[in-house]
Amino acid sequence: MTRIRCISDADVRGRRLLVRADLNVPMENRKITDSTRIARFAEGMRPLLERGARLVILTHFGRPQAGMLDPAFSVDKLRPALSQALGVPVAFSDTCATEAAVMLAERLRNGEALLCENLRYNPGEMANNPVFAAELARLGDLYVNDAFSCAHRAHASTEALAHRLPAYAGPLMMEELGALGAALDAPERPSVAIVGGSKVSTKIAVLKNLVSRVDHIIIGGGMANTFLYSDGAPMGRSLHEADQIETVRAIRALADKAGCTLHLPEDVVAAWDFAPRARNEVMPADACPPDAMILDAGPRALARFQSVLADCRTILWNGPLGAFEMQPFDQSTLRLAETAAGLTRDGLAISVAGGGDTVAALNAAGVAEDFTYVSSAGGAFLEWLEGRTLPGIAALQTAAAAA
User: How does DSSP classify residue 6?
Assistant: First the structure.
């Protein structure tokens, strides 16, 4: 954080800020179904506009075939929502790296904004092409990366461009880095991570990194099944990875060495069909029948997990504890989310959550607003949990060091 410059601290009056945003919002029938990303981006940009900045906004939208100008992926359709959120009309450039785009950027006056066409229409974006980055650099005076969710990609607009102009982090980027740093880099102790999801194999790096960073890890979902299986528990038809026993042993050894306590469910909710409101039964974690499947943590496990949270000052959450998308197998996830939210509201804990399923679960519980911070970043959040260096962040650090 100390090695990255924030655009909020810079003199922006009359300067063209070339801002990399992530406005890749979900849409159906040309209508935005969730404008959260636009709203959060605009919240940080409005004060800069009020101070006389001139915004040139870059974003991707969807996954168009590089070089194909498929109108289905045009970002022009985002303008109404973006204009409303920013509080100013937003002009549009149907290209992002041409003389025409440069002319539109140069015509901006203080407090005005320009949205450029989808970065991914150009093959140079995802290839991190330096020539394309140089063309983009002509659009601005200062570069601002405000898209943490894209920081794990070494693309032209997230990595190469940071070396072409004086580079800064945007307000949303700084907010994200501050929250994530407080949760993992320098957490208040004791700290706990809740790690759920279907497969241990997809979160090996996450678990190996977290055992040396936090005091407790609560393991849920199909991941917990694999840990239980390694202890000899029958799985019946439960989702688990029989080939990951050695991985589980390695993670446990690392946790023991680091003094991190792993918490698994002592009882579970098993069902005989993978369907909403299927016949189910609470049973010990080591008693799953051959024709049943574990779909949630049980009430004793939930009570134990809640007591762990109550003793901790920092809560980090990635992944549900069960099949939260189906009732009644959402109970442990929803109830534990309510516990974390309550501790946060009472000032007893800092809570940071991220990941698509996690955010959906917190929204289902109606507690997302009560968490200290909920990250909208998907892949970037996961790679941060793994302890990886994110190219977009490293580029900002390099630029600040060279300034």
Answer: B
- Running DSSP on this structure, what letter comes out for residue 185? I
The alpha carbon torsion through 25, 27, 32, 34 (nearest 10 deg) reads -50
Q: Order of strands, edge to edge, in the sheet holding 280-284?
A: 280-284, 267-271, 293-297
Q: Are 146 and 25 in contact (CB under 8 A)?
A: no
Q: Which helix (H) or strand (E) holds 287?
A: none
Instruction: For the chain, give every residue range classified as CATH 3.40.50.1260.
Output: 7-172+389-402, 187-371
What is the rounded distance in angstroms from the CA atom of residue 124 to the CA atom of residue 132? 6
pLDDT digits (tens, 9 = 90+) for 294-341: 999 999 999 999 999 999 999 999 999 999 999 999 999 999 999 999
Q: Give dist(CA 219, CA 81) in Å, integer.
A: 39
Q: What is the pTM of this model?
A: 0.91
Length of the chain: 403
Contact between 365 and 331 (Cβ < 8 Å): no
The CATH number of the structural domain formed by 187-371 is: 3.40.50.1260
191-195 and 216-219: which strand pairing? parallel
- 220 CB contacts (<8 Å, ≥6 apart)? 194, 195, 196, 265, 297, 319, 320, 321, 322, 332, 333
153-171 pLDDT, tens digit per residue, is 999 999 999 999 999 999 9
Residue 1: pLDDT band (50, 70, 90) is very low
- Of the CATH numbers 3.90.550.10, 3.30.830.10, 3.40.50.1260, 3.40.309.10, which one belongs to the domain with range 7-172+389-402? 3.40.50.1260
